[in-house]
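User: Look at the shape:
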Amino acid sequence: MLTHEITAIAGKNKKRKRIGRGQGSGHGKTCGRGHKGAGSRAGFKKRDIYEGGQMPLFRRLPKRGFSNYQFATKYEIVNISQLESFDDGAKVGVEELQNAGLVDLARSGASKIKILGDGELSKKLEVSAHKFSKSAQEKITGCGGTATVLS
């Protein structure tokens, strides 16, 4: 065994810190928590962004830019393949889509419906929605149906 191998083994298993086992241990009395304050109490969690009472970085920096998130129009998506569940020659509107369980405007936070052209359609349907993709419109009209855009 060589000297560099001994030092590698010596530092391998570090003794755990025994807290609250008397003054002789070096971790007695306050157990490394200091005196009073939130840090000495049970259940205390220090936030990563906390800077010791100094004004945090995210509050020191100016607010910049604009977010369109709250003003953006949100669409509930329905694919052509999902419309296959309706009967041939049926009128498919917002209410019919909600009754079929294909959209839930109240839960999703969306206010409009968009029909996308994923899948195939073999039935003649009168579909009315707020928006259609080009491929969806072509597939609906290709089967002899109509795609009406709601305002």
